[in-house]
Amino acid sequence: IFYKDLNKTSSYIKRIILNSLYKIIIIQDDIDIPAMYSPDSNFFTDIIFIKKDMDVEEKRIIIAHELGHIIINRILKENSSFAIDWNIINEENFSNLFMYYILYDKSCFYSDEEYLSNFIRNSALDFKSSYEDILNKYS
Q1: Nearest-angstrom CA–CA distance, 22 and 73
Q2: From the first residue on, what is the mean pLDDT of each consecutive set of 10 residues in the chain (139 residues)?
Q3: What is the b/e burial string over 66-105, where b = at least 16 CB atoms within 10 angstroms of the residue's CB?
C-alpha cells in the first residue's frame, strides 16, 4: 500500500486497507533520513517512511532494503524453525541481499550459471553502491 496522502485516499480503499490481514504501508514524508521501517502497534501492520523528494529509482532501492528488514523481523526472527544466529549475521547486509534479489531481473537468474556468477560479481556491487550513494545523498 503506497500513500501519497492518506487524507485523500478514498473510503473504499481505506476499507480494503483496514480489512487486510497483513499490511505494509509506505508513506512519503519530509524526514531527515532516506527511510525508516517502523512496526506498528498492530501486529499485522508495518510502516515504511520514505523521504518524499527522492526519485522513483531511489525509492525502489530504499523500499526493497526496508522490505528486507520486514522479512527478517516478521518471518526469520519470529519463526523458531529457522536456525539463524543473529549474533553473527549482520542484519543490514542481509537486508541488502534481499534488496539485490528482488530488484534484479530474474528472467535468466537461475537458468544461466554464468549470469548468476556475473550477478554475484558485478550487479550486487552496483546495487550496494547505489544504496550507499542514496544514503550519502540524503543523510
Answers
A1: 14
A2: 58 66 83 83 79 90 91 78 80 86 70 69 77 86
A3: bbbbbebebeeeeeeeeeeeeeeeeeeebbbbbbbeebee
The CATH number that applies at residue 114 is 1.10.10
Q: How many CA atoms lie within 13 A of 44 on its CB side?
A: 7
CA torsion, points 123, 126, 128, 130, in degrees to nearest 10? -140
Domain range for residue 47? 2-138
Phi-psi region of 91 (alpha: psi -120 to 50; beta: other; left: phi over 0): alpha
pLDDT tens digits for 10-36? 676 666 666 666 778 888 888 888 888
The dihedrals phi and psi of 103, each to the nearest 5 degrees, come to: -90, -20
Which alpha helices (DSSP H) does 1-139 contain, by range? 11-19, 56-71, 91-103, 113-118, 124-138
